[in-house]
Design a protein that fits this description.
This is Pyrrolidone-carboxylate peptidase. It catalyses: Release of an N-terminal pyroglutamyl group from a polypeptide, the second amino acid generally not being Pro. Removes 5-oxoproline from various penultimate amino acid residues except L-proline. The chain is α/β, with parallel strands linked by helices and 215 residues long. The protein has one domain (2-202): Peptidase C15, pyroglutamyl peptidase I-like (Aminopeptidase, 3-Layer(aba) Sandwich). Helices cover 32% and strands 21% of the residues. The chain has helices at 19-24, 46-60, 118-127, 142-157, 172-175, 186-202; strands at residues 2-9, 31-32, 35-42, 64-70, 77-80, 82-84, 111-113, 132-135, 162-168. The longest helix is centred in the C-terminal third of the chain and has 17 residues, at 186-202. The chain is globular, with a radius of gyration of 16 Å.
């Protein structure tokens, strides 16, 4: 049986919850698309998030990896296309560290592209009524750090696994404290992640449709 590693983050930035963890933790131990799901929580700490991720990768040796994070202010499920080799923190992490213009991996490539079928994922999410789009930036905080370290490890380890990152909006409970900011229910996020897993496990070659941005 195949194994999928899903990761999500602890709360950060003054929030008491993180919608990624609230949704992802419900998948632990489930079987979807003929695969067993294993879940891990990552710290919102630059110095440790990649270490915890890599420990899980080496322990589990998954066939697929789907990392999930909070993107407060975004209105839909955003499937990330690329991770870049820089930490540039607008706010401190949970250890009060705030790296600026520092590489994630010294002498590492400038960027890595997701190896998941990102456009097929977006199409499937829209088909089931969940707003979704391809994102051209995973930011420069710990989400981007984790995506970069995941793809760096997959390439350097020789693993045949495929992996990538998805951002999700605030939960309504959070948006209530940020007037005018979009949100998405945990039930809708769980539906979106389950649909994404089905696509990830059944799609070898991504579809070729427009998913770019003009700005």
């Amino acid at each position: 049986m195949k194994t999928v590693l899903m990761t999500a983050f602890e709360p950060f930035g003054g929030e008491s919850i993180n919608p990624s963890w609230e949704a992802v933790r419900s998948f632990d131990g489930k079987e979807i698309g003929g695969a067993r799901i294993v879940v891990r929580q990552l710290p919102v700490v630059f110095a440790r998030c990649g270490e915890v991720l890599i420990q899980a990768l080496e322990e589990i040796r998954p066939d697929r990896v789907l990392c999930v994070g909070q993107a407060g202010g975004r209105s839909d499920i955003t499937v990330e296309r690329v991770a870049i080799n820089v930490n540039d923190a607008r706010i401190p992490d949970n250890d009060r560290q705030q790296p600026i213009d520092e590489p994630i991996v010294a002498e590492g490539p400038a960027a890595y592209f997701s190896t998941l079928p990102i456009k097929a994922m977006v199409a499937a999410l829209r088909e089931v009524g969940v707003p979704a789009s391809v994102s051209q930036t995973a930011g420069t905080f710990t989400c981007n750090n984790v995506m970069y370290q995941l793809l760096h490890w997959l390439q350097r380890s020789g693993s045949a696994a495929r992996g990538g990152f998805v951002h999700i909006p605030y939960m309504p409970e959070q948006a209530a404290h940020h007037p005018g900011v979009p949100s998405m229910s945990t039930a809708s996020v769980i539906q979106a992640l389950e649909t994404s897993l089905q696509v990830i496990l059944s799609t070898e070659n991504d579809i070729r449709v427009a998913g770019g941005a003009t700005h």
